[in-house]
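Lab notes, practical 5.
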Amino acid sequence: MDLEQNDVSLEQIAILHNRFKQLSQNEETLRRDDLKTIQDLESNPIRSQIIEAFFDSRNFQNDGVGSVEEIGFEEFLTVMSYFRAPPQHITEEQREKIRRSKLRFLFNMHDTDNDGTITLEEYRHVVEELLSRSGALGRETAKGIADAAMLEVASISVGPMAPDDFYEGITFEHFLKILNGVEIETNMHIRFLNMDATVLCK
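Output from the prediction step:
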């Protein structure tokens, strides 16, 4: 595990281990169905992406690929660490490394087919879910907004495009460019078993 991102106290590890045991019903591994019981995630519009992130080998910091059916506590702790604010007294190089790691985690959540690109369809799905679940917009309206947003992202990533140009999607380098200047290091958090993951992992 990356010590810069997982340097948590024994007390904090014990808290997370208790949560892990509660979810797994005292088993040694967690499965997707275990996470689907979390009430705090029920109304989250990207609930499925959050759950899937725990089983995405790309997020285990061991150069893995593909997804797994179950995870142990070490993988659980590694994924939870992405929601932890960085330590205060670190170098700029360390801070940038943590930021890049968090952004890679977010990128992986939306690159659902694991091809290194967030396609229009993947991006549209996320935006549609976020907008249509609010109840304020219909599915077709949400789809139109998602398409327009993708074109804007394309213009930021690759510059002006001709009407017949085909935009393949957002690469990770494009993703970094889009989120340049956005404070992400301390703003990633989820509610987890009635406790805030940023509190658990400070």
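Observations recorded by the TA: Residues 151 and 164 are 13 Å apart (CA to CA). Residues 90-187 form a domain with the Recoverin; domain 1 fold (CATH 1.10.238.10).
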